[in-house]
Design goal:
The complex is a heterodimer. Chain A is mostly helical. Chain A contains 9 helices and 2 strands; from the N terminus they run H-H-H-H-H-H-H-H-E-E-H. In chain A, helix 3 runs antiparallel to helix 8. Chain B has 10 helices and 3 strands. Chain B starts with a helix and ends with a strand. A 3-stranded antiparallel β-sheet of chain B has the order 1-2-3, with no helix packed on it. Classes of the chains: A mainly alpha, B mainly alpha.
């Protein structure tokens, strides 16, 4: 990475694994779980959050010296809400079906704790470029978990990925279904999202013993 | 009757935590002790009961397409619904601030128990989610909106109370080290959510579920075929395997 110094690159790579916003910092879980029944919705959600968090971090970072600390929450909420309205309108304009699937969860990006958390913890104390990298890094860490959960739920639940049947045809018994494989419809129900995230946390903490809570 | 139905529905069937995962962040962060969980839960009921009806009024008289008709005929075709996010969140943030000031002034003891949680609530997804669901489900009257707010608040309260009690007890259990803390909480919440799904058919029986749960499930694999093991006659040692299509496979069991 010639473009980024080592310290800056760490801002992006850290949240992907050992400081992941979802599994370690426990932020932004609400929206992560509800929309992951399909891989496509997860990817769109990840991109939306990345746009909002990247731009929002820069805006807050530029204003950090003129925001009175007493009303900073309201200022942050207004910045996020404005960005989310833009994202929502873009989604409605270019992919109406998907914005119906995501329903209220686009709006709930406003109260996604990752965004407020990064504003408070990073953007209020750092310059715009570093804040931008931090925003992109954390959104990528969030998106990574979303995509993993979405991948497994869609693959095991409906046997498709991004809507393409990858395991064969369940009705005409082709592909894997020919040897008796069945889709697990349970994976599409919301409780399984929690359990899949629980398993991801389990795997991650088994691999890195330092993360274990006592 | 309508009120009771919506009330029970918002507590059990559309439970904020277990059905829509709203307010998970504070649900996970503040559920280590029952006493703090009760404080936060009470604050959530309180704020939802105020903000949902308030946002209903905003939605009805300001934001919906054609809502500005009361200003005069020339405003009738304005559609401000794209502003609803920012209006709702502004209402919530100011109401939370206002409630904090009022409670501090008139009831210092309540302030001491709720006080630290109130600022947290402005960014709790359950609160904004309550208003957004109120809008997208088109709740028809102010009274019903209040019922919906209180009901969803109580549902959230129940959820955080239950998980806090379980987490207090589970501290004494031998959980695998890597699952301790966050991991096991996720899995327990998942199991509780499965339990809450059984409330689904409680009210009207055959009502269509509103959430588009399982729209992508193909016909026929919704339920795995139930295999019944039935030992019909103990003398000839034959086991009849029945699945739900009514086909029976008989097979001899060797002694």
């Amino acid at each position: 990475m010639g473009l980024l110094s080592k310290k800056d690159a760490k801002l992006i790579t850290d949240p992907l694994a050992d400081n992941n916003p979802i599994t370690i910092q426990v932020l932004g879980i609400c929206s992560a779980l509800a929309i992951t029944a399909q891989l496509k919705a997860s990817i769109v959600m990840a991109i939306s959050v990345m746009a909002v968090l990247g731009i929002g971090n820069v805006v807050i970072s530029l204003m950090r010296n003129i925001i009175p600390s007493k009303i900073r929450i309201i200022v942050q909420l207004v910045v996020v809400a404005a960005l989310v309205i833009i994202v929502d309108q873009v989604l409605k304009a270019f992919s109406y079906e998907l914005s119906k699937t995501l329903s209220v969860f686009v709006g709930l990006i406003i109260t996604n704790c990752i965004i407020m958390g990064r504003f408070e913890a990073f953007a209020l104390a750092n310059g715009p470029w570093r804040s931008f990298l931090d925003g992109i890094g954390n959104a990528a860490g969030y998106g990574l978990i979303l995509i993993i959960v979405g991948f497994f739920r869609e693959l095991l639940g409906s046997g498709t990925l991004l809507g393409f049947p990858v395991l064969g045809d369940p009705i005409e018994k082709k592909g894997l279904y020919a040897i008796g494989y069945e889709n697990n419809g349970f994976m599409l129900l919301s409780p399984m999202a929690l359990i899949v995230v629980g398993i991801i946390i389990w795997v991650q903490r088994t691999r890195n013993k330092e993360l274990i809570e006592d | 009757m309508e009120h009771l139905e919506l009330f029970l529905k918002s507590i059990f069937i559309d439970n904020m935590v277990f059905a829509t995962f709203l307010g998970m962040c504070s649900y996970l962060a503040v559920s280590k002790k029952v006493s703090t969980a009760v404080g936060l839960g009470a604050a959530v009921i309180f704020v939802l009961a105020i903000t949902v009806p308030l946002n209903w009024l905003l939605d009805q008289y300001l934001l919906q397409p054609g809502a500005l008709k009361w200003l005069g005929a020339e405003y009738a075709d304005y559609d401000l619904s794209f502003l609803s996010f920012i209006m709702f969140i502004a209402t919530i943030a100011t109401m939370v601030q206002l409630v904090e000031i009022v409670v501090e002034k008139f009831s210092p003891s309540l302030y001491n128990s709720l006080g630290i949680f109130l600022p947290l609530i402005a960014v709790n997804c359950a609160i904004l989610g309550g208003s957004l669901f109120m809008q997208s489900r088109e709740i028809p009257s102010l009274g019903l909106a209040t019922t919906y707010g209180v009901g969803s608040g109580i549902g959230w309260f129940l959820a955080i109370l239950a998980i806090a009690a379980i987490r207090e007890k589970i501290r004494y259990s031998n959980v695998p080290p890597a699952l301790r803390g966050l991991g096991i909480t996720f899995i327990i919440t998942g199991l509780m959510a499965i339990g809450f799904m059984s409330f689904g058919g409680m009210l009207t029986g055959g009502d269509e579920p509103e959430v588009k749960k399982g729209t992508t499930v193909q016909e026929g694999d919704k339920e795995p075929p139930q295999v019944q093991l039935e030992n019909n006659d103990s003398n000839n040692n034959t086991v009849v395997l029945k699945d739900d299509l009514g086909m029976a496979n008989t097979s001899k069991v060797n002694e």
